[in-house]
Design brief:
single chain; 162 residues; mainly alpha; 3 domains; two-stranded antiparallel ribbon
C-alpha cells in the first residue's frame, strides 16, 4: 500500500482535529477506518486491476436547526425524536458527540442542545446559587481585594491623625 496515501490520511485527520471537527480521542478510530478502507481498495485493485470509482451521493437537504429547538422540546435532527435535551448518550447512538452534532448541522458551538425552557431554568438556578463565588480563585481574589481596601483605609486614617 502506498505510504503517501497513509501520510495524506494522517494529515487529513490532524486537520480535522485542528478544525475541531474531530476530537483527539477519535483520531485512532478514524485512522483505523481510513487504513481499513485503503486496504479494501488495495485488495479490490489487485483483484480487478483497476481502482473503483466513487459515486457522488445526492446532497442531503439542508436542515434548519433553529426549528428543532422549541420552548419545551428539542428534536434530534438525525432520528427525529423529541427530548428536553439531547444527551451525550443519545448522540453516541448516532456516532456523534455534542461538538460533531453541532458541526454537522451548522450550529454555533455555544448553542445549548436543550429546550429553551430547560436552558432558562438552568440559567436562573445558576444566577441564584452563584457557584463562581464559592470557587477558590474567586475567594482568594476577594481576600486580596479586601486587604487592599483595608490597607488603603489604614493609610488614610494614619494621614488624618498626622
Amino acid at each position: 500500500m502506498s505510504q503517501t496515501l497513509l501520510e495524506m490520511a494522517k494529515d487529513l485527520v490532524l486537520a480535522q482535529i485542528e478544525a475541531h471537527k474531530l476530537s483527539p480521542d477519535e483520531m485512532h478510530t478514524a485512522l483505523q477506518h481510513i487504513y481499513s478502507s485503503l486496504q479494501a481498495l488495495q485488495a479490490q485493485e489487485d483483484a480487478n486491476g483497476s481502482i473503483p470509482r466513487a459515486t457522488r451521493e445526492t446532497p442531503a437537504e439542508s436542515v434548519n436547526w433553529k426549528k428543532s429547538i422549541t420552548k419545551h422540546a428539542v428534536t434530534c435532527l438525525v432520528c427525529g425524536v423529541s427530548f428536553k435535551q439531547l444527551s451525550a448518550k443519545h448522540l453516541r447512538e448516532h456516532g456523534l458527540d455534542g461538538r460533531s452534532y453541532r458541526a454537522k448541522y451548522g450550529m454555533p458551538q455555544s448553542q445549548p442542545l436543550s429546550a429553551r425552557a430547560v436552558t432558562a431554568l438552568r440559567k436562573e438556578t445558576m444566577q441564584k446559587s452563584r457557584p463562581w463565588e464559592k470557587a477558590p480563585t474567586y475567594l482568594k481574589a476577594q481576600e486580596k481585594k479586601q486587604e487592599k481596601v483595608t490597607g488603603a483605609q489604614r493609610k488614610k486614617t494614619a494621614r488624618a491623625k498626622a
